[in-house]
């Protein structure tokens, strides 16, 4: 059955707060900054809002480390509590990326997940830091890659430099999340598209000061922010599957004849794969796959590998 999810991504440049003021004033200004930015997307009534990496860290160009540590001390969980109140009031999930100090005094670069009731679901800790994050700031590497169970689907996270490492991506290839969220200071360019396609997942990037995007599981851009407006809202359908055209393609005309607009078969061109989705309330993609004996892309690739390795199939 169609599972429409409305996603908002916010990617303004880091908030500029001049050095020399009180930490209390800086916290209040940061909350005001995000209240203003959220005002651009909340009227769309999103199911999920994603912020950029370290979203409540003042611009480093204007705010030195010494003042930043005092700011973090005064901030505590106050900005998270603000986002939690917004999530509860508007009935949406919020991904809050931040630098947080653990009880033992160590630091993490984290993406905290807040549910529709304003409660903390858990957090993803950046697995692949830039070495300077540890050397200069004492931030520890994360070691886990949890999947967050939301009411619209299963969500994974990657933060900034993470996008360069296959170790994490392959974990998500196996886990098969419906959506990957990517809070970042770095855009990633084609790596965004590659992660979306290789994980067969929707992908949303929230990139500070650079274009933020929503991608489909074919790696295509569904929506992208601009130099004028650093935010987007887009609706995607999670009830979908990626299929190769080989062997499946012979069934596409019959599917369309029977179901018409209830089933969407989208061909991006050149890739050899399509995205099939159910646009109906009484029909799921799994139903269509079962009815027509369709083979999902990963099953086809795995079968092709097994066929290659069968006795007598490979040159001596």
TrEMBL record:
One of its GO terms (molecular function) is hydrolase activity, acting on carbon-nitrogen (but not peptide) bonds, in linear amides. Keywords: Hydrolase. The keyword Membrane does not apply. Coiled coil: none annotated. Residues 12-238 form the CN hydrolase domain. InterPro entries: Aliph_Amidase/BUP, C-N_Hydrolase, C-N_Hydrolase_sf. It comes from the Bacteria. PANTHER family: BETA-UREIDOPROPIONASE, NITRILASE C965.09-RELATED. This is Carbon-nitrogen hydrolase family protein. The lineage of its organism: Bacteria, Bacillati, Bacillota, Bacilli, Bacillales.
């Amino acid at each position: 059955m169609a599972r429409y999810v409305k996603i908002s991504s916010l990617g303004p440049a880091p908030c500029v707060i001049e050095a020399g003021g009180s930490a209390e004033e800086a916290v209040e200004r940061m909350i005001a900054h995000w209240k203003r930015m959220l005002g651009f997307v909340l009227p769309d009534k999103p199911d999920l809002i994603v912020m950029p990496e370290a979203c409540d860290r003042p611009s480093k160009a204007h705010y030195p480390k010494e003042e930043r540590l005092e700011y973090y001390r005064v901030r505590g969980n106050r900005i998270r509590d603000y986002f939690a109140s917004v999530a509860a009031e508007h009935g949406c999930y919020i991904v809050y990326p931040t630098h947080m100090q653990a009880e033992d005094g160590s630091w993490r670069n984290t993406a905290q997940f807040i549910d529709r009731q304003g409660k903390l679901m858990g957090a993803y800790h950046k697995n692949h830091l830039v070495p300077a994050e540890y050397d200069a700031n004492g931030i520890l590497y994360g070691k886990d890659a949890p999947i967050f169970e939301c009411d619209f689907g299963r969500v994974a996270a990657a933060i900034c430099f993470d996008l360069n490492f296959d170790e994490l991506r392959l974990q998500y290839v196996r886990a098969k999340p419906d959506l990957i969220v990517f809070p970042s200071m770095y855009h990633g360019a084609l790596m965004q598209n590659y992660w979306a396609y290789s994980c067969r997942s929707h992908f949303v990037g929230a990139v500070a000061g650079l274009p933020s995007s929503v991608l489909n599981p074919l790696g295509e851009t569904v929506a992208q922010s601009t130099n004028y407006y650093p935010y987007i809202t887009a609706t995607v359908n999670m009830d979908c599957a990626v299929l190769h055209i080989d062997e499946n393609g012979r069934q596409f005309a019959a599917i369309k004849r029977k179901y018409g607009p209830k089933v969407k078969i989208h061909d991006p061109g050149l890739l050899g794969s399509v995205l099939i989705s159910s646009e109906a309330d009484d029909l799921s993609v799994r139903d269509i796959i079962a009815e027509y004996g369709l083979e999902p892309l990963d099953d086809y690739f795995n079968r092709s590998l097994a066929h290659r390795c069968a006795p007598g199939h490979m040159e001596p």
